Amino acid sequence: MTSRNDASFVAGDWGTSQLRLLLCASDGCILERAAGPGATDSSGRFAPLFHSLLAPWQQRHGPLPALLCGMVGSSIGWLQAPYIRCPARPEQIAGGCVSPHGVGDVGDVGGSGGSVHIVPGLSCRNRFDAPDFMRGEETQILGAMSIDPRLRRGRQLLCLPGTHTKWVLLADGVVDEFLTAPTGELFALLRDHSVLLRECAPLEAAAFDTAAFGNGLAQSNEFPHAQLLHRLFECRARRLDGELGAAASVAFLSGLLIGSDIGGALRLLAGSIDTRSVHLIGASELTRLYAIGLATHDYTATCVEGVAASVAGLAQLHRQLARRQVADATR
Questions:
Q1: Distance (Å, rounded) from C-alpha 64 to C-alpha 34?
Q2: Pick from 58, 69, 54: which is nearest to 12 by CA?
Q3: Do 57 and 108 reside in the same domain of the chain?
Q4: What φ, ψ does residue 42 adopt, rounded to 5°?
Q5: Tens digits of per-residue pLDDT, 263-307?
Q6: pLDDT at position 204, please?
């Protein structure tokens, strides 16, 4: 049984708006949690912020190696980690990890001896022959393959819904290609800053109108070749006509956007996979909505919780780096 004395490493997801730190055992079991400001609010002080959060754990457990993913490795981060070009194997991602040592900060976290590594992102040319990038999701993909080994076999389609939804093709455990859709960002912009949903306050999860969401999905599916731009005004028009209330209008918009996202991705990518199944990685409420949308196309969905996937991916990378360090030391 894992105990607090089994602390082995620190896993961190340092995104744009938040830092999530996890004290982990060697098997990835979470022992303690800490949180801090995101990358945009940490400019010029990544090392002292990180050290202040890590200090209580190191006082009790000694030097701890740390592995960080997300925007901490971007141009606004602690150190700009490289992008690994797809097709990308898991060992290439591990090999692309970099340390902030010598970049205005100390890679051993204040001289304490605990090494810090930052995970690289991935890049590809997508189905539109356009450049595409991800940073942070690659770690969740590795974690999902660790949680569900079936993902390492055959051609699989993954969806990581969020602000910038990622649709990812795996080929025998290799990240072959991916496609990004800013579905969540567009939803937030239209909900909060558009006349389409004026006076419609953001919804609590409990107030989400599932029936209106389903109506939005159905409308998207009924006219699959319609341009999304030609459907968005309905969010306001259906309110003016009395068909939808304020809460229902927000859920209807969500259905239109997610329906468009799913329908477009399946038309582009479904011919490249072996089964009518999609693996969803992310927050439970969002993956639930995508699972509902996929079911309207007769696709089954398997869901992996996003934080669990991140931790599993960072734990896998930690083990690979530890083995590499041992091998280097014995040469």
A1: 15
A2: 69
A3: yes
A4: -115, 5
A5: 999 999 999 998 999 999 999 999 999 999 999 999 999 999 999
A6: 54
Domain count, the chain: 2
* pLDDT recorded at residue 310: 95
pLDDT digits 0-9 by tens, 29-80: 999 999 999 999 999 999 999 999 999 999 999 999 999 999 999 999 999 9
Q: How many residues does the chain have?
A: 331
Asked if 110 contacts 51 with a C-beta cutoff of 8 angstroms, the reply is yes
Is 186 among the domain residues? yes
pLDDT at residue 203 tops 80? no
Whether residues 92 and 10 share a domain: the answer is: yes
Query: Helical H runs in 172-233?
Result: 183-193, 210-222
Which pTM value belongs to this model?
0.91
pLDDT the model gives residue 200: 64
Q: Are residues 119 and 221 in the same domain?
A: no
SS3 252: helix
Specify the DSSP element, H or E, that contains 243.
Answer: none
Q: CA-to-CA distance for 199 and 15, rounded, in angstroms?
A: 30
Shared domain for 5 and 120, answered yes or no, is: yes
pLDDT at 101 over 80: no
DSSP code of residue 293:
H
Which residue is listed with tokens 């744009």? 16
Q: Which residue has the tokens 């969020």?
A: 162
Give the CA radius of gyration of the chain.
Answer: 21
Distance CA 15, CA 5 (A): 28
Give the start-end residues of each E strand in 61-109.
66-69, 83-85
CB 209 within 8 A of CB 199: no
Greatest CA span in the chain, whole angstroms? 75
Q: How confident is the model at residue 114 (pLDDT cuts 50, 70, 90)?
A: low
Residue span of the structural domain in which 70 resides: 1-124
